[in-house]
Amino acid sequence: MKTFSGLLVLLALSCGVTHVRAAIRKVVIYPLGDSITFGWSGVAPNHELPGGYRGPLLTDLAKKGIRCVYVGSSSANPSPALAAAHQVQHDGWPGWRIGQISAHVEQWLAIGGPGGNKPAYPDFILLHIGTNDIIQHYDPKYPHFGEPETVFMRAMENRMTRLVLKLVHLRPHARIIIAQIIPIGGVAPDGVSHDQEALAFNHFIASKLVPECRAKGYHISSANQHAAFQDSMGLPSFRHLPDQVHPDVHGYKVMAKVWMKRILAILSRHKP
Questions:
Q1: For residue 4, how many C-alpha atoms fall within 13 Å in the half-sphere facing its CB?
Q2: CATH class name, domain 27-267
Q3: What is the C-alpha to C-alpha distance for residues 206 and 43, in angstroms, rounded to an integer?
Q4: Tens-digit pLDDT profile for the chain (272 aa)?
Q5: How is the chain split into domains, by residue range?
Q6: Is the distance from CB of 240 to CB of 247 less than 8 angstroms?
């Protein structure tokens, strides 16, 4: 039976009494997605926010006694803290869609292990993808903007299902956490708001994709990143999404906490 990468309990003796100082668990995390995983922002001078959510997540997990090891084929756009910790790896690819990620992920996992040039075997895969499919209104079978909305959404759902099943096949022991993607501003060519499409996609993830995968015994769950960017009325808030697509510094911290909450919930069950 496979276990998480490691668990070290440090004991300190004081006056003949044993105290547990800390429980340090090492987890290997594979950040996977598009520019939101890469660390992109509409406000930074070069539109990059080094590390994106990966830096805050590393820090937040460390505060909980968890040592995070990032894996992936790319080391682009690290924050100084990530570079100092030698945790620069990920697979966040700006502008990429679901199908593009799916076409390359096997190759990335084959070379994206710690330090690179060896296979990666993550404990967790954090997947935030679909934003560019919506913004680009992309569908390889129906490339024209006149396609029915139902056709567009169904094809997007099918691509997402294929990607998730590929990840399950490639790394069956990994815990795959699928993001219900953050809000998106703007309007599609057919007049439907991008965020309405995001909500429909998120509903598919939460109500169909994840339950059906779990019914088959796959290690799949979801994290509602969209809800973390809603106002008190439950409407999308772009306060920390300055270009209505990418988070600012605070927004990436918000994302990190949503990921961490789900990771901690899984770790608390002490399951492989």
A1: 24
A2: alpha beta
A3: 31
A4: 444 554 433 322 233 333 333 457 899 999 999 999 999 987 756 677 899 999 999 999 999 999 999 999 999 999 999 999 999 999 999 999 999 999 999 999 999 999 989 999 999 999 999 999 999 998 888 777 678 899 999 999 999 999 999 999 999 999 999 999 999 999 988 889 999 999 999 999 999 999 999 999 999 999 999 999 988 887 788 889 989 999 999 999 999 999 999 999 999 985 43
A5: 27-267
A6: yes
Question: Amino acid identity, residue 213?
Answer: C
Region for residue 125 given its phi and psi (left: phi exceeds 0; alpha: psi -120 to 50; beta: otherwise): beta
Distance separating alpha carbons of residues 183 and 162, to the nearest angstrom: 23
* Of residues 170, 173, 143, the one with CA closest to residue 155: 143
Contact 184, 245 (CB under 8 A): yes
Bridge-based pairing state of the strands 66-70 and 124-128:
unpaired
DSSP symbols for 108-146: HHHHBSTTSSB----SEEEEE--HHHHHTT--SS--STT
